[in-house]
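Bug report (template v2)

What were you trying to do?
Predict the complex of my protein with 5-O-phosphono-beta-D-ribofuranosylamine.

What happened?
Run completed; filing so the output is reviewed.

Input:
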Amino acid sequence: MALNKLNLAILISGRGSNMEALIESCRDPSFPAQVSVVLSNRPESKGIEIAQNHGLLTEIVDHKTFPGPSSFEAALQKALARHPVDLICLAGFMRLLSPEFVQAWPDKIINIHPSLLPDYKGLNTHERVLADGRNESGCTVHFVRPAMDAGPVIIQKKIQIKQNDTPETLAGRILEQEHVAYPEAVRFIGENRVRITNEQVTIL
Ligand code: GRF
């Protein structure tokens, strides 16, 4: 492994298309990051198969096999400790991490969310955006803080909402932007261009 690259742990729960966008970016020799491990809390995640097809190391920490969140997170930490990890990228990882876990990785966990945060945190974002008659939406890459979908924003990409958009068409157009935004945010971090001051990000 190249010495000066940012080592990524990508945490997923399902499809893994954002994970794959990161994997593809890491194949570019000039990209300042490399994937150390892909970890899923669901053994049946499609993304795990995709990661293995790319020849990457994977770990499964199935939350259902633990009595509660703290033993699950202890196992997650153990799995992460088996690999060099500088940055944890949550990519459709559907477990809320405890404050203790988040604080154990200060400014080293990032997430992607399919809305223009702080608007539309949580699930079913596209349905809610359409129900509110909004004319734009998008995606956000942000540092993770203990509260759900909160934390300093690194990058947002906007899209215009069309009159005949459905949650599915909107999700599709936003997902395309997610696949651009996530590698871009990781690149900024890998190039050491990201500063957080008073919970606001500046890109140098
Ligand atoms: C993405 O829309 C992401 O923003 C959200 O969950 C979805 C994951 O999709 N957090 P994928 O697994 O990356 O394809």
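What did the reviewer find?
The chain has two domains: 1-105, 114-204. The helical segments are 17-26, 46-53, 69-81, 99-104, 125-131, 167-190.
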